[in-house]
Amino acid sequence: MSQSLEQLSAQVPGSTPALMQWLQTQLAAGHATATLHKSLLKAGWAPHIAQAALVACTQPTPNPARIAPMPEPNLSQHSNQIDVGDRQVQVLLSMQKPRLVLFGNLLSDTECEQLIADASPAMARSRTVATQAHGEEINPDRTSSGMFYTRGQTPVVALLEARIAKLLRWPLENGEGLQVLSYRPGAEYKPHHDYFNPQEPSSAAILQHGGQRVGTLVIYLSDVAAGGCTFFPESQLRIHPCKGHAVFFSYPSPEIHTLTLHGGDPVLQGEKWIATKWLREAPFL
Length: 285
What we know:
Elements: H1 5-10, H2 17-28, H3 33-42, H4 47-58, E1 81-83, E2 88-95, E3 99-104, H5 109-119, E4 124-125, E5 128-129, E6 136-137, E7 145-148, H6 155-168, E8 179-183, E9 189-192, H7 203-207, E10 213-220, E11 226-227, E12 230-232, E13 237-239, E14 246-250, E15 262-264, E16 267-269, E17 272-280
Antiparallel strand pairs: 1-2, 2-3, 3-14, 4-7, 5-6, 7-8, 8-17, 9-15, 10-14, 10-17, 11-16, 12-13, 12-15
Helix pairs in contact: 2-4, 3-4
């Protein structure tokens, strides 16, 4: 049974039934959640109320029969280590909402340094998916430099990809090429979602190659003297960069109720290097 406007509003302190009614009307008309979020902020709603109201209005009714396979480490025994064949990866933290796991010892110092050295000659200003057209574009919200490896491009990349596939129990071919990013002092990536918004004009072409993204692994290739945390504003969680560590989070549907809005805090001192692995629901060709 669907909830009344009053029940929805009661879930979000500071909201009103009228706000919930307006959101439901706009969502039914096909407006993107990101667009509605910006409209609420412009209208004067506090960011946490705007986000929580959108979550309340888009939360699906659970249906166990529709559960699809997802990348997921084996945490069934609550062990603090996972054997990935050539090393023991530490489990440092896990959460259910958002679905998130922090790993230690995914990479050695030597492997981190080799990935950086091999990537450095190809680094260029980072781009994001162009939401209104096919391709990529410079985005002022993302001020890093980056490059993409092809799958298996170097021995270290191939080793890491095999390690990730075993750690997350997800087919190697369902992963995009590893992306290496560098953030100098002042560089950041403002909060965003990694999944592709099905309502954006550019998404149809992207989804033909591997389907939707369902998980992200952010690997820290360097320590950072100050700043540069990975920040999840909806849960107020900050992951501090630590060389060789990685944070994994998954999103079974391209919806804000997954609570996977995240960003990279500005680097305040030093330089931040990370590698990002995005996982698709099908083979990425």
